[in-house]
UniProtKB/TrEMBL annotation:
Keyword Lipoprotein: no
Organism: Candidatus Criblamydia sequanensis CRIB-18
The protein's name in its UniProt record: Isocitrate lyase
Gene Ontology process terms (BP): glyoxylate cycle; tricarboxylic acid cycle
List of residues binding Mg(2+): 151
GO function terms (MF aspect): isocitrate lyase activity; metal ion binding
Cofactor note: Can also use Mn(2+) ion.
Annotated active site: 189 (proton acceptor)
EC number: 4.1.3.1
PROSITE patterns: ISOCITRATE_LYASE
CC cofactor: Mg(2+)
Family statement drawn from the similarity comment of this UniProt entry: Belongs to the isocitrate lyase/PEP mutase superfamily. Isocitrate lyase family.
Record-listed substrate binding positions: 90-92, 190-191, 226, 311-315, 345
Pathway the protein contributes to: Carbohydrate metabolism; glyoxylate cycle; (S)-malate from isocitrate: step 1/2
């Protein structure tokens, strides 16, 4: 047994040293710690492993990756069908709607800790169904299993809480996770006030914990370190030398230490986190290329080529800051600075609310004319690859008809899609258009 453990540990250490994937990544623990604590069987977490490997290749080979926050499985399907190569799972969106408490919460880590992993599972189940439908029909048009980048908030507690959360995310398929340097018990959305940071060394411990959890699980997930220092003004302690030099000397009524936010301090925090993460994210309060350039230059001075992430947040009033021309090139200019992952965190929340309000507002005035306009829009979107207009087929009715046929043979009269209104009115509409041509 000991010989087996020693051999595995030696091979792991060699991989960490020689594999380009781990260049520049610092671990404070030994491979022997991983092998000893992972148990006697290494379980393969296929979705997370393949997703992490895929995302790493995309980040390495492409200029940058665009992503949108998905609030439901169906939204994730639409994103992949439209051509996006990665999906973002936001803690804010989980708090606001899709959490295990079935509550509506602000983004303050109020929801049950396993809510994000459960949404990751839901998304992959939705993508899996589309893969099954296309593959069964011999018309697999795309890779449905795109990588998921998931929000781990501030870890929901200390190191062992973070450890268990990251493991749960990997079990459900996460390819990447991000953690932020806020105090977990007071964690808030990056665009809220009242944020309190933890000392630099404390956050580094959480990044090390996340890497250790991924090594235990045997999955090379992408770890994103987010700093909220540019938009906060309090830190829990003066114990860290990096934090101490930026303190104002004043304390809050709760005893937290005030500091004056600056890009210099934010860059210094980012540099401290860089060896323990694959990517750095600086939370900002507006879409400002100057700030983005300053942060990127500061990080790359010490860590050339370090990947960066940028939150193209719905908390920004985009037209207040940028005109149409600047918006068209905003992400490309960020990419030139090294911002490889660019995402709209709350896209799902705003899309689902705006689209339903628009329909409801028109419907209560015009009745079925309003709904028919939505339907005609769906028919137009079919030309771009949209398929949910045929909702029975979309959720797998035809696929389960095929399962029934496999079980019973061709002599079956209870198929659900056959002779349905969808077959006669929606598939027929498509055939009618072909005939007219």
């Amino acid at each position: 047994m000991h010989a087996f453990i020693n051999k595995d540990a030696e091979e792991m250490e060699k991989k960490w040293l020689k594999d380009p994937r781990w260049k520049g990544i610092k671990r404070t623990y030994k491979a022997m710690d991983v092998v000893r604590l992972r148990g006697s069987r290494q379980i393969d977490h296929t979705l997370a492993r393949l997703g992490a490997e895929k995302l790493y290749r995309l980040l390495k080979d492409e200029t940058f990756i665009r992503s949108l926050g998905a609030e439901t499985g169906s939204q994730a399907v639409q994103q992949v069908q439209a051509g996006l190569k990665a999906i973002y799972v936001s803690g804010w969106q989980v708090a606001g709607d899709m959490n295990e408490s079935l509550e509506t919460y602000p983004d303050q880590s109020l929801y049950p800790v396993l809510s994000v992993p459960k949404l990751i599972r839901r998304i992959y189940k939705a993508l899996k169904r589309q893969d099954e439908i296309e593959f069964a029909n011999g018309k697999l048009k795309r890779d449905w299993y795109v990588p998921i980048v998931a929000d781990a908030e501030a870890g929901f507690g200390g190191p062992i809480n973070t450890y268990e959360l990251i493991k749960a995310m990997i079990e459900e398929g996460a390819a990447a996770v991000h953690l932020e340097d806020q105090l977990s018990s007071l964690k808030k959305c990056g665009h809220m006030g009242g944020k309190v940071l933890v000392p630099v060394s404390e956050f580094i411990t959480k990044l090390i914990t996340a890497r250790f959890a991924s090594d235990i699980m045997g999955v090379p997930i992408i770890i994103i370190a987010r700093t909220d220092s540019f938009t906060a003004n309090m830190v829990r302690s003066d114990s860290d030398a990096i934090d101490a030099k930026y303190l104002t000397g004043k304390r809050s009524p709760e005893g937290y230490y005030y500091y004056e936010p600056s890009m210099e301090q934010t860059v210094e925090r980012g540099i401290s986190f860089a060896p323990y993460s694959d990517m750095i994210w600086c939370e900002t309060s507006m879409p400002d290329l100057g700030e983005a350039r300053e942060f990127a230059a500061g990080i790359h001075e010490k860590f050339p080529g370090k990947w960066l992430a940028y939150n193209c947040s719905p908390s920004f009033n985009w037209k207040m800051h940028l005109d149409e021309k600047k918006m068209r090139t905003f992400q490309e200019k960020l990419a030139e600075m090294g911002y490889k992952f660019q995402f709209v965190t709350l896209a799902g929340f705003h899309a689902i609310n705006a689209s339903m309000f628009e329909l409801a507002n028109a419907y209560q005035k015009e009745g079925m004319r309003a709904y028919s306009r939505l339907q005609e829009k769906e028919f137009e979107l079919e030309k771009l690859g949209y398929s949910a207009i045929k909702h029975q087929q979309f959720v797998g009715t035809g696929y389960f008809d095929e399962i029934m046929t496999a079980i019973h043979g061709d002599n079956i009269s209870t198929k659900a899609l056959k002779n349905s209104t969808e077959e006669h009115q929606f598939h027929a509409k498509k055939e009618k258009k072909k005939t007219k041509k």
